[in-house]
Amino acid sequence: MTDDTSALITTDPEILGGKPVIAGTRISVQLILEKLRDGWSIQDLLEDYPYLTREQIIAAIAYAASAMGWPRAS
Questions:
Q1: CB of 57 within 8 A of CB of 32?
Q2: What is each CA distance from 23 to 39, 59, 60, in whole angstroms?
Q3: Predicted TM-score (pTM) of this structure
Q4: What are the tens digits of pLDDT across the range 9-36?
Q5: In angstroms, what CA-CA distances link 64 with 16, 47, 49?
Q6: E-assigned strands of the chain?
Q7: Helices 54-67, 29-37: crossing angle, 10 deg rounding
Q8: Cα angle value 27/65/67 (rounded, 5°)
Q9: Helix, strand, coil shares of the chain as percentages rounded to 5?
Q10: pLDDT tens, 30-69?
Q11: What is the rounded CA–CA span in Å between residue 21 and residue 31?
C-alpha cells in the first residue's frame, strides 16, 4: 500500500484468500484491528503473539488507514 508498509504487509491469493497479512505470517491486518477494537493494547498483542514486532503492528494500522484513504500523519 505505502512504501512504509509494503515490506511488512503483504497480500497473496493463496494466503487467507488474499487478505492483507503481516509478512511471513497468517496474521491478518483485520485481526490486528479487531483486537485493538476489542480493547487490546499493542503490548497485549506483543505478549500474545511474541513473533510480531511493534513495527509490524504499527504497519498494520498504517495499512488500514491508507486503505481508508486517510492522509498519513506527519
A1: yes
A2: 24, 10, 10
A3: 0.84
A4: 999 999 999 999 999 999 999 999 999 9
A5: 17, 22, 20
A6: 9-10, 21-22
A7: 100
A8: 80
A9: 45, 5, 50
A10: 999 999 999 999 999 999 999 999 999 999 999 999 988 8
A11: 9
The set of cell numbers assigned to 21 is: 497479512
Residue with cell 511474541: 50
CA angle 27, 3, 26 (to 5 degrees): 10
How far apart are the C-alpha atoms of 57 and 4, rounded to whole Å? 12
Backbone angles phi, psi at 28, to 5 degrees: -85, 155
Is the Cβ–Cβ distance between 2 and 63 less than 8 Å? yes
Which of 67, 71, 70 is closest to 29 using CA atoms? 67
Closest CA to 56 of 29, 20, 22: 22
Domains of the chain: 9-67 (1.10.10.10)
